[in-house]
Write a structure and sequence with these properties.
The complex is a heterodimer.
Chain A lengths: L4 E2 L1 H8 L3 H9 L6 E2 L5 E4 H9 L8 E6 L11 H5 L4
Antiparallel strand pairs in A: 1-3, 2-3
Helix pairs in contact in A: 1-2
Chain B lengths: L1 E2 L1 H17 L3 E4 L6 E6 L4 E9 L8 E12 L2 E13 L4 E7 L2 H8 L4 E5 L10 E2 L6 H13 L13
Antiparallel strand pairs in B: 1-6, 2-4, 3-4, 4-5, 5-6, 6-7, 7-8, 8-9
Classes of the chains: A alpha+beta, B alpha+beta.
Chain lengths: 87, 162
């Protein structure tokens, strides 16, 4: 089982860079991190692994598709609620 | 949240980018595929994104789902519905943040948005919890990642609406 997250210190060790470099990468949004509290900053493992692998993020394009009805919402919602939008 | 027609497309492109930056492996849209924005007969635009947070297992034990809908109005498109879902099978919980059927929720509970929390999954002690509005999809994705990275939720600590 792979770890779910890394601390900035652990990320620095994995990438073989300084802690300051990791801090800068996070500040520049080059490395996604989630702040859980003032003191706890976690780097999602999948994000770090993607960076380590050098997998580029290729910008997708959006295409429109005409449909009768759009995405379904509230699939598991209370039936009474769903009835409010029934045709 | 009002967006122009083309801004909706740009927005979903950026949302997919954000998910992929966090390492989410998307199955909808498939890897490398274009993002489908559904344009319904009522003029609404909607999008559905589904993916997994890779953990070394196949299939991965955590999945995320994002659904958003925009209705046309005088100033462009306004986001009218959303659903952000996290299923964490490893730690056996579900968290969800919803805005849908607002008229019903307003009538029943005097709220527009609500949340779901199941731990263990399938054990629904409360059908709907009070929630805070999710400003946009970027915040929604962050909230899902927070839930995945933090300790499993204490559903009993949330405010039950039912």
């Amino acid at each position: 089982m792979e770890p779910r997250w890394y601390t900035p210190k652990e990320a620095a060790e994995r990438l073989r860079v300084s802690h300051d470099t990791i801090t800068r990468m996070i500040a520049r949004d080059e490395l996604p991190a989630i702040r859980l509290s003032e003191r706890i900053l976690r780097i999602p493992a999948p994000a770090l692994h993607r960076l380590e692998a050098g997998t580029p993020i290729v910008r997708r394009r959006a295409v429109r598709r005409r449909v009768r009805t759009g995405v379904e919402f509230g699939a598991g919602e209370t039936p009474a609620a769903r009835e409010t939008v029934a045709p | 949240m009002w967006l122009g027609a083309h801004e909706v497309d740009d927005y979903v492109v950026r949302l997919v980018e954000l998910l992929e930056r966090y390492g989410v492996v998307l199955s909808r849209p498939a890897q490398g595929a274009a993002i489908e924005v559904l344009e319904a007969d009522d003029g609404s635009l909607s999008v559905e994104l589904i993916g997994q947070l890779p953990d070394g297992r196949l299939p991965a034990l955590a999945s995320v789902e994002v659904r958003e809908e925009f209705q046309p109005g005088e100033d462009g498109y306004q986001r009218t519905r959303y659903e952000f879902e996290l299923i964490d099978r490893e730690r056996d919980f579900r968290r969800a943040f919803h805005l849908h059927f607002p008229e019903w929720f307003e009538r029943e509970y005097l709220v527009v948005v609500h949340e779901h929390c199941e731990r263990p999954m399938g054990e629904v002690r409360c059908a709907h919890y009070q929630g805070s509005p999710i400003r946009d999809g970027y915040e929604g994705v962050r909230v899902l990642l927070e839930a995945w990275l933090a300790e499993p939720p204490d559903c009993a600590a949330l405010h039950c609406l039912d």
